[in-house]
Known about the structure:
The protein is mainly alpha-helical. It has one domain (35-184): Vanadium-containing Chloroperoxidase, domain 1. It contains seven helices and no strands. It is globular, with a radius of gyration of 17 Å. The protein starts with 12 loop residues before the first helix and ends in a 6-residue tail after the last helix. Residues 1-6 have low confidence and may be disordered.
Amino acid sequence: MTPQVPGRSEFGPTIDAFDATADQLLEQLRGHPLADRLFTAASHAGDWSLIWHVASVTRGLLRRRPDQVIALAAALGAESLIVNQGIKRLVRRQRPTDVGDPRYDVRKPSTSAFPSGHASSAAMAATILIAWDGRRWAPLWVSVAAIVGVSRAYVRIHHPSDVVGGAVVGLALAALCTPVLRRLAPGVAR
């Protein structure tokens, strides 16, 4: 893959325009104390899929489903490997900034930008949890996933299109791993 030329996206002018428009919309929120706290906290909570492991362990203890805790942990591990050591190494997209927006103290990732691993793991985990918990819990899991995903563009560690791409990858990986999870953790909805 050829290195990216500064000021020019390997994804083309349409994606550049999407990213610029979405960033302008997010800029209208940046600087508001509640939004800043929410999205910075969500960005931290998404590091290493922490929020999804905590949710999984909590529901696993409450429902006495250690099989589902182990299954989700394994799925998230596989997702991280595929995204961070596979897709990101192939695409090698530069991040919008080296360390994120200086207004927000977030961890500087060591991988390239596309796709967002936070958004990918969030979409995958939310999809799997909805399969186990049913549609009643869908608003909660989708909301958490959306906030975690958007947080990465909010703190300027990712382009907005990285977040969209990550969500698509996470949904695809959830669809691929559902048959395996049905065997490992019975009770996954069909």
